[in-house]
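Researcher: Sequence recovery benchmark, item below. Answer with residues only.
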């Protein structure tokens, strides 16, 4: 399987549903390897101290026989800023020849994931 960046997804499983649709899924751990400040904890006085469960970015792609495609991406984080969402979308669109209207981005709104901001 080829390696993927967090922002450019490899669709690793394609199946046909009655010959009408193909669906592919992918996932990548986005668990930080260093202590991070967690979202939603305004009263915390220190960053995280360990990892209990990995956090993930996951993608589902669905395509019909006419090559109409939609990709749904979900992240196990509190949320993404507009800037980060649009940068991620730009990279996915460029890598896969899609339109912005074919890409839906979602966050699970967890308070057990790092604060995300541009560096």
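Model:
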């Amino acid at each position: 399987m080829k390696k993927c960046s967090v922002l450019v997804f490899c669709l690793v499983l394609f199946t046909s549903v009655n010959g009408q649709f193909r669906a592919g899924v992918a996932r990548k751990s986005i668990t930080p390897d260093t202590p991070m400040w967690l979202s939603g904890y305004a009263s915390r006085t220190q960053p995280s101290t360990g990892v209990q469960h990995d956090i993930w970015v996951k993608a589902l792609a669905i395509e019909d026989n006419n090559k109409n495609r939609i990709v749904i991406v979900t992240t196990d984080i509190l949320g993404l800023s507009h800037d980060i969402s649009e940068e991620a979308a730009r990279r996915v669109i460029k890598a896969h020849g899609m339109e912005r209207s074919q890409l839906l981005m979602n966050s699970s709104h967890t308070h057990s994931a790092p604060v995300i901001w541009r560096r």
